[in-house]
Amino acid sequence: MSKKQLIMESALELFAKQGFEATSVQQITDHAGISKGAFYLSFKSKDELIIALIDHFMMQFTSDIDWVVKNSNNDTELLYDFYNAAFASFQKHSDFAKIFIKEQSQTPNEELISKMRHYDKLTDKIILSMIDRLYGEEARKVKYDLIYCIKGFIHVYSHLFLFFNLPFDLDSLCRSLAQKTNVLAKHSTIPFITEELFQTFTTEQSYEEVTAEQLIELLGQTIEEIEEPIEKESLTLLKQQLIEPSLSPAIVKGLLENIRNHPHCKWVSYLLRGYFGF
């Protein structure tokens, strides 16, 4: 485990018990068994560490739901698979999910708020593509309302199983929410959020396209951070593909599959899928 990963895991344990504000850098370094100097070699401040944790959680959440929407071949099960991926991600990272939900409405830090909004808009984009695929013209008038209904379902039901210790049957939950979403999509007739109103929400955070140069830099950083040979070699080949394309689409897709489930490769996998059009 790298020093950076050790710091993040130690901080996560303390944040889960005490919250962001009540946890000091000194407490984090003591818990991790490292010096303050070692901490500041990895992170400039506690806020930078918090942003790294938010990135780590939201990158995995975003990449998981994006993969499901883009790779499901069964439209009748797509909503179920989408909700399953969303709640499974919250369940897998439940300690941080609790902190994230609690703190995101309380933090006065503008950089954190901006970061949260960024991922929120990426989620909107993924959900909108799913709605368009499943319902097309049938839900044209209410599709923007549906985005917020779906996000509302995820938010509220996440609260139930994260904070109230309710019996958690993931299969039943996902089938129930898939049914509710279908009912709303097919029978709602009065929209509230119009396309024009939705666009006003997204002007602050545009969906910027990542460049090959940015991806090459990110791949280089990721290659240095991980140790697993298959993922490391796959990342190296993908980086070379960006520099000098020579691989077939099938091979590129296979390399992306090699890295998709590694927790520190999910984001670069998500970005590369978008770049290569998968």
Helix content: over 70%
Report the top-level CATH class of the largest domain. Answer: Mainly Alpha
- Count of DSSP H/I helices: 14
The overall strand count is: 0
User: What coarse outline follows from CA principal-axis ratios?
Assistant: globular
Main sheet? none
Q: Mean pLDDT across all residues, rounded?
A: 87
Q: Could you describe the 3D structure shown?
A:
This protein is an all-alpha fold and 278 residues long. It has helices spanning 3-18, 25-32, 36-42, 46-71, 75-92, 94-104, 110-135, 143-163, 170-187, 195-202, 212-225, 229-243, 249-259, 266-276. The chain starts with a helix and ends with a helix. It folds into 3 domains: 3-43, Homeodomain-like (Arc Repressor Mutant, subunit A, Orthogonal Bundle); 48-202, Orthogonal Bundle (Tetracycline Repressor, domain 2), CATH 1.10.357; 212-276, no CATH class. It is globular, with a radius of gyration of 20 Å. It contains 14 helices and no strands.
Summarize this structure briefly:
By secondary structure, the protein is mostly helical. It has 14 helices and no strands.
Topology:
Blueprint: H1 3-18, H2 25-32, H3 36-42, H4 46-71, H5 75-92, H6 94-104, H7 110-135, H8 143-163, H9 170-187, H10 195-202, H11 212-225, H12 229-243, H13 249-259, H14 266-276
Helix pairs in contact: 1-2, 1-6, 4-5, 4-7, 4-14, 5-9, 6-8, 7-8, 8-9, 11-12, 11-14, 12-13, 13-14
Features:
HTH_TetR; Arc Repressor Mutant, subunit A; 278 residues; mainly alpha; Tetracycline Repressor, domain 2; globular; DNA binding; HTH-type_Tx_Regulator; 14 helices
